[in-house]
Design a protein that fits this description.
336 residues, alpha/beta, 2 domains, 18% strand, disordered N terminus, ABC transporter substrate-binding component
Length: 336
């Protein structure tokens, strides 16, 4: 379904003019910037205040899938997505170019209270999985299909001898805000949720922490800033100004998280305590990690998340020009 939606959006987008435009003669051009609803993503709401070169219209979407669809359909010009979305888009032949990192982390595996496991007890989880499978009622594991947390979870399971495609039953819950309710109702046994919803689950007592899933190939990598090749060709100054604003925003998060906390509260309506806790699991970083992206692509193919080997296209579609200009650093110092 996700693949079909993206392909339809891509074809529709061919007939749509890019939303970048000058508001009036002599006015700064407007750039539409899409971002998802998660703790690390919501800092993107702050980007407009870090530039006067362009007028950035920051638009919030429910999920990274929605943001990517908006980008390829030309409803937005620049988008915050995940490394997983980037690889998936390349697999489907979509026009995406990564231009900056943003914030990483934000993943946590949480379990329902009735599951008799201690934190990081992979041997215990493997036994539960095997026993449940033998009884014909496999453990139900939820994720939001297509986000970084889904990949983090599958990679961790595979590392510990659990086949995510055969040993457990995956439940797709598109909106991460619904994870807490599914746990409370006992509809799922575990979920790899995104912050701040993972912290909401733990602090509300709806579930318990099992693991921070950062040992798999993706590590803590989550978010990328991407655009299309036509934007780079036809509107390089707008891309340049936006990337520079993202870099300034990321640098600001390292010293003051006040505005970041406010944006989480604004877009999720969650308590400030939850927002504070969620940011302990998020890491501002504008680097783009090419070698790790190749490893992510290989892991995704092993997991049958993608059908083709896109490693050859990764370098071609990671453009360090704007990030290098914004930071004054060569690409070799920025994750290349």
């Amino acid at each position: 379904m996700f693949r079909q939606a993206l392909l339809v959006a891509a074809f529709v987008g061919l007939a749509i003019t890019s939303p970048v435009h000058a508001q009036s003669s002599g006015a700064a051009p407007e750039v539409k910037l899409g971002f998802a609803k998660c703790a690390q993503c919501l800092s993107m709401a702050l980007v407009p205040q870090f530039t006067k070169a362009v007028k950035i219209d920051a638009i919030n979407f429910t999920s990274g899938n929605d943001v990517l669809t908006a980008l390829v359909s030309r409803s937005v010009d620049i988008a915050q997505v995940t490394y997983l979305h980037f690889v998936t888009a390349l697999d489907r032949g979509l026009d995406v170019v990564a231009v900056s990192g943003q914030v990483n982390g934000g993943s946590a595996i949480v379990m329902r209270n009735g599951l008799n496991l201690k934190q990081d007890d992979w041997a215990g989880l493997k036994k539960l999985v095997d026993d449940a499978k033998a009884k014909g009622s496999p453990l139900k594991i939820a994720a939001s299909r297509g986000n970084a947390q889904d990949l983090h979870m599958r990679g961790e399971l595979q590392m510990h001898g659990i086949d995510p495609n055969k040993d457990v039953q995956f439940i797709n819950i598109p909106n991460p805000a619904d994870h807490v309710g599914a746990l409370q109702r006992g509809e799922i046994d575990l979920v790899c949720s995104v912050e701040p919803f993972a912290s909401q689950i733990r602090l509300s007592g709806a579930g318990k922490l099992f693991n921070f899933p950062y040992e798999q190939a993706a590590g803590k990598l989550s978010n990328l800033i991407v655009t299309r090749s036509d934007m780079i060709k036809d509107h390089p100054e707008e891309v340049r100004a936006t990337v520079a604003a993202v870099v300034k925003m990321v640098d600001s998060l390292k010293t003051d998280k006040t505005a970041w906390l406010d944006s989480i509260k604004k877009y999720t309506a969650l308590d400030k305590t939850v927002a504070i806790e969620s940011l302990k699991n998020a890491y501002p970083d504008y680097h783009m990690y090419r070698t790790q992206t190749v490893a992510i692509a290989k892991m995704m193919k092993d997991l049958r998340y993608v059908s083709t080997d896109v490693t050859g296209g990764i370098e071609k579609n990671m453009n360090y020009t704007f990030l290098s200009e914004a930071t004054g650093q060569p690409k070799t110092a920025l994750g290349y």
